[in-house]
Amino acid sequence: MPREFLSRPSAAFQPPANQLRSRPFPPPTDTHNETEPGANVESKGHQLEQISFAPPSTTNSLQTKIDTCPSSIIQRNHSKPKKSQQKRSKKQVGLVNSTTNNGVKKPKISKPQKTKKYKIGMHGAKKSEQKRLSSLYNIKISGDSHESEHTIGFEPLNQTSGLKRGTAGRAKELENQAPAYQEIKSSHRNHIGTGNSNTLDDSGFNSSSYRETQRNLIESGDISSAVQSNQLGYAFQSDFQTLSHSKEGQAANDSFLNMVKNMDLFTYAQNNNNKNVKVSLQQKVEMIASRKMAQLGRYLTKQEIGEIYAELLN
Fold this sequence. Notes:
Blueprint: H1 59-68, H2 71-77, H3 83-93, H4 126-137, E1 146-150, H5 154-158, H6 170-177, E2 180-184, H7 185-189, H8 207-219, H9 223-235, H10 240-244, H11 247-261, E3 265-270, E4 273-278, H12 281-296, H13 302-313
Antiparallel strand pairs: 1-2, 3-4
């Protein structure tokens, strides 16, 4: 049987005994400086100048000109426009600065921006995430340096669907919507969740027991512990703490934090249907705490836990 999460003593990482995850994370009780929503907020209205777009009345003068105009001119002006004129008129409709008959410029109509299908923190947004991290840390983040780490693997979230990984439709959507971040490539390759191994790693899991544990946890609605079990694998890697302080490691930590921040809903397959589980603030705090403990190799102080709450609430 695999050891329970955060239960095995280690020289580098000694989590609490006989409990699956670390739960002594009460939110800070000092709320004297909190302000209730809407308090001391002034509502300042702005007077809008009323502008009339109605053209001046020209009915009488126009009628006079029509009455005195020769019939041949009236007939010519009302004749069917040539094809070239029709094409030109159609083109003018799409111009931003085209004008109406009275010389008033038409307002510019902006096309609605195409919304991104996947947001940062999802596997499907890995290219955007790599680009963001490259710009933020001034290093190249790509498949050569980092890999997309599914904190809850495809096998656990897809287990009962009968769908084959990578197939178009529901299976692909499940994987692309799954929580993922950019982890250092060597660390990801050494994780028990990557590939298949029957040998127990230092966290107490082999590949099968790791995935089965994650499946049981997500079915119980405990997304936090499922993600913590993923981070446990990194906590026992001998070089993980050293790598965490490199630029590549800092980028991975940043990516993990953004994944958790955006993880409001977790979706997994339950036979022929998908099931959604809401992720609470408390669970987010626990997930981030597990990452920080893996980095530091120790428990977090109450102050450090409070800082996580503050960061998530900002």
